[in-house]
Amino acid sequence: MSATLALAQRTVTGKVTDEQGEPLIGATVLVKGTTSGAVSDVNGVYKVNVSKDDAILVATYSGFATIEIPVGTTNAVDIVMKEGLILQETVVTAFGIKKNKENLGYAVTEISSQELTTARVTNVTNALAAKAPGVRVSGSGGSFTGSSIIIRGFTTFTGSNQPLFVVDGVPIDNGGGGTPLQNGPAVSNRAIDLNQEDIESLSVLKGAAATALYGSRAASGVVLITTKKGKAGLKNSISYSANYAFQELNRTPDYQNTYGQVSEATFNPTAIASWGPRIAGQNVILPPAFRGGLVTPNDSVQMTAYPDNVSDFFQRGSNMQHNIAFQGSKEEMNYRLSLGYLDDQGIIDNNRLKRYNVGFNGSSKITSKLTAGISVNYSLNKSDRTQQGNQLSNPLFRGWFTPRSWNLSGLPYKTATGTQMHYDASDNPYWSIEQILFDDNINRILGNINLRYQLLDWLSVEYKLGVDNYVFTRRGYDQLGASGGGNTNAGGTGGILEGRNTSRLRNSNLTLVGNRQIGKDLDLTFVLGQEAVDDISKNAQVIGRGVTVRDFRNLNYTTNYTPTFTTSQGRIIGAYANVTTVYRNFATIDLAVRNDWNSTLRKGNNSYLYYSVAGTLNLTEAFPSLKSDWVRLAKIRANYGRTGKANTRYATDSYYGTANPSDGFGPQILFPFNNLPGFTLFNGAGNPLLEPEFTTSAEVGIDLSLVKDRLSIELTRYQTNSTGVILAVPNSSAAGISSVVLNAGSLDTKGWEAGVTITPIKTKDGFWSTTFNFTQFKSVVEDLAPGVQNVFLGGFVTPNVRLVVGDEYGQLYGNKYKRDANGTLLLNANGFPQPTANVDKIGNPNPDWTLGVSNTISYKAISLGVLLDIRTGGDQYSRNLADLRRNGVVAETAEFNRFNEDGTVATPYKFEGIFETGPNAGQVNGGDVENV
Prior knowledge:
about 950 residues, mainly beta, 20-stranded mixed beta sheet, 5-stranded mixed beta sheet, 46 strands, disordered N terminus
C-alpha cells in the first residue's frame, strides 16, 4: 500500500504572481481538503505533492482574493492572484470560529500582528490605543500598568466594564491593574503576561450579536487573541527578532525659580511651600540634620534656585525584547516553538520588570478524520515597584512640589545608620525608592488541548479543554522611620507584607459544527455547543508591623500580625446555538441563543437566556451592475441582541468580618485585641433575591469599499440599554446597615463609530495608507433606585465621582465658589472667593469623541508608522496641579512680583465680585485686595 501511494503522488510546481506579473512572496498554496501545502519563496515559486488528478489548489495571500485552481494532469500550475476586498477576508469570531467578514451582520475590528508590534510595548492593552473604532483606551501609571478598555460605552455601574479576554478560543483572566489610593504600588493587569510577538491577530467583538455566544462574561465586549501557529507546507525555519526602545519623562511642570521656601517673607528650612523670599544669594540656615560639615561655620548657605531638582529625580528608562521562534511542518504535522525575553526599566529607579515567555503550538492529523492540537504558553513575570497613591511614601506625592531652593539631589537623603533625612515630615523621594520596597513574581501557564473529528464532509465535532493557572506572590517592606503609609501602614515602626494569590480558570467546550450547501442558492452553517467554566482563586496575606531588625525582611521578626485569607469560587454552565444562512452570497441571517446557569445567584434566579439576530444585505452582490472599479463593495448590516450578566459574587448573603474600629484618620483598634477576637456585621447587606443584569443592544451600519479598494468605510450607529443593574444602594445607617445590594439601576448608551482607510499610493514596491478610527458615545444613568438620586463611586468628600440620575456615567463633584443668581462671585470681607457649603457638579470626565489616526508608509524593506490618539472634551481634576499651585512652585504663581519694594507682601490682583460680608457688603470689588 505504501508503494502504491508513493507511486500515485506527484509534485506540482508553479509561480504565484499578481496581475502585473510580480511574484508574491509567502503566498500559501494548499491542496483542498488536506493540510498538505507550501509557501511561495522569494521568487514566488511553490511546490506541493498531490495524489489525485481531480485535486484542487487553494491559494491565499493577504490583500488578495482567494483563488481555487483544478490541477488536472499537469505538473505545472501558475497562479495569478487578483487584489481582493479587505472586507472579504475571514475574521475570527466567538469560540475561534472563522467567518467571512463580508457576511457578518455586526462590526468586528481585527488588528494584525504587525500593527501590534510596530512599537513594541510591555503590556498588550497599551498597544490597542487608537486602533479600533468604538473602543476607548486610556492608560495610567506607565509601561508596567495596563490600559482601561471601554467598548461602546459602559454596561454596568460598580462592576467591571472591561471586556473578556480570549486566547485561542479559551477565556483567560485579565484581572488586576487597579491603582491604589493609600497604600502600595500600582499593579498590572494580567494581560501583561502575554508576549505580543506570539500574537497572530487580535479581534475586538462589539455588541451583543458579536458576543452572545460567550455568555455573561462578555457583556462588555470581547478581545479575541489568536496566537501564531505552524503552517502546513512551511519548511523548518528559525526566526529571531530584537527590539530596543528608550523612554524618557515627556515633560515636567513649568516651574518658577524666583522664590524660595516658606509662606511669607521669612525663610523657613522645613516648609513645604515656595511662597518665601526672592532667591538672591542671601545666607539661610538649613535644618539641623543637614548642617554637620555641609555649611559654613555660621551654619548658613547661600540660597540658590535648583531648576532641575525634580527632573533630576527621573532617569532614562529602557525596553529590551528578544524573541526566537522555531517553526515548521512535516507530513500531517506542524509546530511552532517560541522563546521570549523582556526587560523593562522604568523612568524611576527601582522600577523594573522582567518577563520570560515560552510558547508552543502544534497540531497533527492523526487519521483522515481526527485532528489533535495543543497550545501552551508559560510566562514568568518578575518586577520591582515603588509606591503610588495619596500617601507620603509615594516619592512623587510631594516630590512634584519640592521647594525651588532645595537641593534635592545634592543634599544627603539618609544618615550613616540609614535614618532618612528630609526637610519635612514626608518620606524623602530618594529614601523612599530605596527603603520602601515591593516586588512580585507571577508564574503562569495557559493553553488548551483540542480535538476535531470530521463526522461527515459537512459535519464535525470539536472539543477544547482550556486552563489558565497562575501563582502570584508579592512582598513588601517598609523601613523603620517611614513617614507614609507604604505597603503596610505601619506608622514608622516598619512593616513586612507577604502575600500569595493562586488562580485557576478551567474552561471545557464541546461543539458540533456543520456547513451545508442547500441547493445552489443557500449556504447553511450552524454551531451547537456546551460550555462549563470553573473559576477559583485564593488569597493569603500576612502583614507584620513593628520591625525589630532593620533590613531583615522576615515576618518572624515583627511584633504583631494581621492575616487575611479569602477564597472566591464560581461556576457557569452554558448551552448555546448559532445558525448562519447565506443566500446567493448577498443576504445573510445570523441567529444566536445561549442559556447560562450561574452559581453566583440563588437557585430560581441563576438561569437566564439571551439571544441575538443579525442580518446583512450585500448590494454589490445582489445587484452586480453596481460593482465596478469605483464601487467594489456596498453592504448594509443590522443586528439586535440581549446579554445577561451576574458576576457579583457573594452578594446574596450578609457576612461578618474582623472588627477594626477607626474614624478613618486617627488611631484604630486592631483585633485580636488583648488576645480577644472581635467580629462585626459588614455594613453592606446582601440580597437572596438578586437577579442578573441584562443588556440589550442594537446597531445598524454600512460597509463600503471604493476606488479599487483605495477607500474603505465602516460606519455604525448603536444603542445599548442595561437594566436591573446590580449595585449597593445606600440605606439609612440607623437600620444597622449602610447599603443593600439590589437590581436597582438602568443605563443607556448611544454612540457612533467609524473606520476609514485611505490608500492614496500603492505600487509593487510600497504603499502609503492612512486609517481613521472615530469613537463617540454617551452613557447616561437612567435610573438608580427609588429615592436615590446619586451613588458615590470614589474619591474624597470633595472632589468625588458619582453616578447621577439623568447625567453621564461618572460625574465629578466638588465644592464650587459661591455666586449670586447672576453668577457673580460672592466675596468675603477680605475680597476672596468662598467655597460653597455643599458639593456640586464640577465636571464631566467623558470625552466628547476620540479619533485615532495611523499613517503607514512602506517602501520595500523600510516602513514608517505614525499614530495619533486625539481626544476632544472631558474634564479632569488634578490633585497634582492643585498641589503645585497651592505651594507656589509653578510659573503662574510668580507671574507678578510677590513683594513690594518695602518688603511687604504684594497683592497685584483682585477678584471681580460682590462683597457678601464685612464693611463693604453689597458693594462691587473695585480695588486691590490689599486696599480692602
